[in-house]
Structure to design on (514 residues):
């Protein structure tokens, strides 16, 4: 049997596992290419679970979570990504905004203090 | 609730600025821009980043600055000192590194293999016997004046800078010293090239009034209140070159569900940790409980937006008279768990979308003013930073 992609307690979120994307560009790309109904469904499902999700994830090392927890974490980052679409714009893109495609994230080097 | 800002006329405090409309031509003229490059950018201190980007000896990054026609190499030596050089080989001018950042024991030019140490010294010349009395000690990389204030690295391409960095930052620098810049790390960074004059871009961030309009969906309500609908600021302070404003929030603002969530798990951008006790006197100078952030504008093109517990910076790099490279960098205390990282990610996404709103006006403005049908910007009292900015620039640029 295939290993479940999310931790057991969060199996019910499996239909949204397509949002488990590791980078901001991928999450933003999915947001601006999704229907509002899909975005709203992610938001409505995740928001009430956030307390339980963070209780689970906060016990794990931030860098070096097991793969299933990592995927759940990336889904919370997608929630952060889509939140402005739901709460500010009621549409996937910024209303009258500069194109997100032209606003380029630059890799941040590891600057953990030595 | 009492009015958070009295109606006062800031122009009366800075009478030398006057109240006239200001000319638009400097935002259009290629000739004016040439003078900006010569008389400002080639003469003053420019921020290129923070020292935490170079934690170890041998760490380096390169900053190409079109306004001074230079590629600048910033290196931390094994002795811990941060130095700046022109990224130009002293043999025949090739870049000594094509990488934008990394860690090295030295730099070997890819053209003919000349090797330079981390202090810029020329260590090795290949086929050296064929040269004619080459004095290696005089062929090190060309140094660029480099200094650090509160972890911020500044360079000055003037071979003999008129002022030290401390003199240049002056009283503004003193007011900000002691803020906990060093306890925060860069969390995200964006770049975009915009078809706009750099001053038009900068001006879009030098007043709070627009937030009620440009940001009406994304956060204007966190600032505009019933008592203060146009977000009159708590304080403006003008220095000879630099300037700041202290921006209030709306005490009655009700955060969104995600904002509540983000504030519960960690530090986001519009959460407030309290009255700002422990902040240096130059941050939240009025000690007003509705304070949200201070925005600081360091001449000519650098901004630091200081919140209680996070800060972000902007760089407005002119590329041509009508093209600007805009950079944002955001800093937080290192996230210790997933919840804190989520809060920072929310702030990143919300701020990014807010910036997309800010950027939305810029190219339209440049196109519209290019007609020269409008010849002046009309400025009100709450736009005094824009007025000051143009005045300081014009004083450097001169007439001809
Ligand atoms: S240009 Fe660098 S070694 Fe020739
Ligand atoms: Fe804005």
């Amino acid at each position: 049997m295939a290993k479940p992609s999310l931790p057991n307690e969060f199996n019910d979120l499996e239909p949204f596992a397509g949002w488990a994307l590791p980078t901001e560009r991928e999450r933003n790309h999915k947001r601006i290419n999704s229907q509002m109904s899909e975005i709203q469904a992610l938001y409505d499902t995740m928001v009430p679970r956030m307390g339980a999700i963070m209780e689970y994830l906060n016990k794990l090392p931030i860098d070096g979570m097991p793969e299933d927890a990592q995927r759940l974490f990336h889904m919370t980052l997608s929630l952060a990504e889509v939140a402005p679409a739901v709460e500010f714009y009621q549409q996937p893109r910024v209303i009258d905004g500069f194109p997100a495609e032209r606003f380029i994230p630059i890799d941040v080097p590891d600057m953990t203090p030595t | 609730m009492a009015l958070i800002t009295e109606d006062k006329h800031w122009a009366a405090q800075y009478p030398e600025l006057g109240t006239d409309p200001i000319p638009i031509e400097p935002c259009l003229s290629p000739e004016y821009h040439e003078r900006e490059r010569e008389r400002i950018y080639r003469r003053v201190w420019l921020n290129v980043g923070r020292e935490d980007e170079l934690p170890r000896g041998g760490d380096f990054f390169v900053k190409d600055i079109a306004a001074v026609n230079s590629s600048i190499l910033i290196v931390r030596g094994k002795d811990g000192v941060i130095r700046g050089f022109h990224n130009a080989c002293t043999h025949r001018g090739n870049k000594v590194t094509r990488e934008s950042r990394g860690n090295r024991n030295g730099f070997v030019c890819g053209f003919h293999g000349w090797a330079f140490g981390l202090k810029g010294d020329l260590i090795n010349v290949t086929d050296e016997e064929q040269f004619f009395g080459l004095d290696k000690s005089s062929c090190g990389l060309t140094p660029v004046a480099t200094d650090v204030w509160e972890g911020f690295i500044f360079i000055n391409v003037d071979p003999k800078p008129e002022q030290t960095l401390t003199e240049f930052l002056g009283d503004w620098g003193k007011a900000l010293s002691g803020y906990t810049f060093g306890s925060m790390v860069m969390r995200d960074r964006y770049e975009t090239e915009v078809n706009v004059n750099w001053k038009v871009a900068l001006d879009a961030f030098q007043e709070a009034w627009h937030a009620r309009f440009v940001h009406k969906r994304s956060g204007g309500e966190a600032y505009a209140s019933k008592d203060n609908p146009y977000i009159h600021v708590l304080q403006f302070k003008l220095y000879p070159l630099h300037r700041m404003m202290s921006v209030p929030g709306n005490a009655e603002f009700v955060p969104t569900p995600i904002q509540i969530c983000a504030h519960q798990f960690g530090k986001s951008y519009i959460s407030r940790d309290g009255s700002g006790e422990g902040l240096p006197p130059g941050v939240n100078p009025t000690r007003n409980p509705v304070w949200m952030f201070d925005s600081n504008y360091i001449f000519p093109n650098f901004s630091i937006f200081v919140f209680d517990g996070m800060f972000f910076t902007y760089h407005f790099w002119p590329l041509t008279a009508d093209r600007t490279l805009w950079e944002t960098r955001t800093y937080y205390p290192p996230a210790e768990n997933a919840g804190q990282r989520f809060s920072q990610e929310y702030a990143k996404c919300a701020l990014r979308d807010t910036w997309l709103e800010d950027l939305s006006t810029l190219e339209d403005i440049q196109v519209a003013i290019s007609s020269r049908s409008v010849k002046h910007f009309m400025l009100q009292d709450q736009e005094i930073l824009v007025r000051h900015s143009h005045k300081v620039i014009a004083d450097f640029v001169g007439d001809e």
In short: The first helix of chain B runs from residue 10 to 13. The pocket of fe (ii) ion (ligand 2) is lined by residues B 210-211, 214-215, 358 (CB under 6 Å). The longest strand of chain B covers residues 185-194. The CA atoms of residues 56 and 302 of chain B lie 25 Å apart.
